[in-house]
Amino acid sequence: MNKITMTSNLYQRGRVNLGNVTRMKKLFKKLQAGEKIVYGAIGGSITQGSAASSPEYRYVERFASWLRTRYSATVDVVNAGIGASNSLFGAFRVEKDLLVHQPDLITIEYAVNDTTNPDTQAAYEALIRKCLTLSPDVAVILIFTMNHSGENKQHLQEPVGLHYQLPMISYRDAVYPEIKQGSWTWEDISPDTVHPNDLGHEMIADMLSRLTEDIAAADEQTESLPLPDYQFPGAAKYENARIIDAASMDLIAQSGWNQGPHKAGYTGWQTDQPGAWLEVRFSGTYLAIGSQQYSGDFGRASVSIDGKEPVVIEGYFTKAENTVWAGGHTIISVINEQLPPGEHTLKLTILPERHTNSNGYKFDIGYLLIAQ
Length: 372
What we know:
Layout: H1 8-14, E1 15-17, H2 22-32, E2 37-43, H3 45-48, H4 59-71, E3 75-81, H5 87-97, E4 105-109, H6 120-132, E5 139-144, H7 154-163, E6 168-170, H8 171-180, H9 186-189, H10 198-217, E7 241-245, E8 250-255, E9 258-261, E10 267-271, E11 277-283, E12 286-294, E13 300-305, E14 311-314, E15 327-336, E16 343-350, E17 363-371
Parallel strand pairs: 2-3, 2-4, 4-5, 5-6
Antiparallel strand pairs: 1-6, 7-17, 8-11, 9-10, 10-17, 11-16, 12-15, 12-17, 13-14, 13-16
């Protein structure tokens, strides 16, 4: 078996695009001048580092360590990875969880988790635009990871990166052919069906380092291109997006619910009672709900806006065959994205019906995602 390492050939296979290098060149000047920079990473559980043996072995921290060594610089890290989250959620939370820290460099990793995204390209574009409009100098790099079958949403995300002329690397394109031809096994780089182990994280960080060196050696470009028009007009609806958790909802009334921790620092509403209900007032033209889904005693909820036709949210998670992961993640359910402007009333009720494999009615609402 070949030695498992990120060779030059593998890296070249996975280097998708150098992009317009101006923003990265400005970053290098800051580093060379001894200025402190902030490196922010947003993504799912791979960015969060779920299967890394310790935080310093995550690709985010490895890449930051390489930058410190390469440029003798101070690099602060903001790791905004949240497990089982997609770029739709990212577009709503990026200001609060990442951009508030004023990063100079941002990596975005949602290629695997956007399989759960009901609006992948528009949400991904909205997330990228929010990052690029933070400042004229912020540098953004896109990362495409994969699951054990080599599947991801790169084919949807890559065109967005090309539209904005961003640097991009594909861990999938570099590594998965080695697994398909039998040079490596999936177990060499991952302990489960998705997450890279320490070696996998090392290879992602190595690809980022090599990409950085390639950009440093590229011809100088005098200025960044102006932000282009939207590639997907639907992305515009996420410009004025916000997250409202239980602690800040405009509650009209409720029966059978309690407030408690949800996930990733958000406060939620929880219940285990059929018939439990709550009413919330909000203003906006778009509404989605983030709620927990788990292979336990979880129920279903009916959601109605202004008394109109309800939408049902399933709280029970159906496990994939031959896997042990039982969920526990937050799913995002789009309730209505064409509401008339103005104030609306949301009513959510736990239904008496439930999944055949569930023995209970638990439900956990994390937040409302609202856009104007």
